[in-house]
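Fold it.
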Amino acid sequence: MHHHRGNVNLKKRYKAWRTSTDESFDESKRKNSAVNEELEYWMTRLPEALKSLPIIRLAIPGSHDTMTYTINRHSDVGPDEPRYIRALGRYCSFVSKPVIFNWSITQHESIKDQLDGGIRYLDLRVATKPTDGNIYFVHGLYGSKIYQPLHEIAEWLSYHNNEIVILDFQHFYSFSEMDHHHLVETIFRIFQTKLCPIASTFNHITLHWLNLEKYQVIVIYRNEYAQNYTNLWPSGLWRTPWPNTVNVNELINFLDIELKTRPLQIGFVSQCLLTPDIPYVLKHLCGTLQRDLVPSCQKAILPWINKKRPGRGGLNIVIADFISDHNFLFCKTVINTNKKLYFNVQYSV
């Protein structure tokens, strides 16, 4: 009997949570209102049962090339571009830089607005410049120096004690051993005791445990330099297969196959995005990523996400371009899938 009553209470709590979130999730036209407060504190407001699951079994929205909002039209061409594109940028910058710019921007919102909108996984690519000792964000063109945005993340976290973020340092361009040292020192200086140490298993890495230990940042560092540190997570523990296609059907097939075969014991990123190749860009010289590829992509991925569920072998981290479109509908859609876990949580997850 006692067990049964627990279930009734669980259902009541679930119903209250469900109603509170559904009301806000449906009002996607009202900007910057109480609606978005649901997104700003979505981890804090998850039911306790879900906070006791390993975070690799929750659905977590992320942004692809998070920091591209810091790029502007006059930025230099980055070392992540092929050599001939860099040469074009140098010698015909009037023509080529605007083209690179139009295809390099993947996000418009500042890091604070992304976090307020529910984003909890950040995809970071960094590079140095030959001219100075600083580290910059990069995607086609150089973005801002890394220091201010990282400080903004730390500051945001100090006002949101029960939210956690995953920083994925994916690519390092023109990086020496010294540059790695400089970057790691910067990460440690800014995030200090908020950094979650690596574990050999994710079983205990739940929101509940992270909150208890006051860990708010998981740093993935996809370079062997990370081997020297106990709180830089290696690439192998967070799989992130890249679809590399401009074709929506190919993308959906890729996402399905990868999700079906995802390793159960580690983190997993579904990259819901189309990638323009050089021939595509040449055919659409006056185009932009947002105008030409993103609408068809969003039309396909939102229903795809809706059909999936988190849990064992299910959705985990899901990333996309222009995550704030339609008042953060992508984030709402990903977070909403966590509701599918609720009734099963005691039994099968």
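Residues 2-26 form the longest helix (25 residues).
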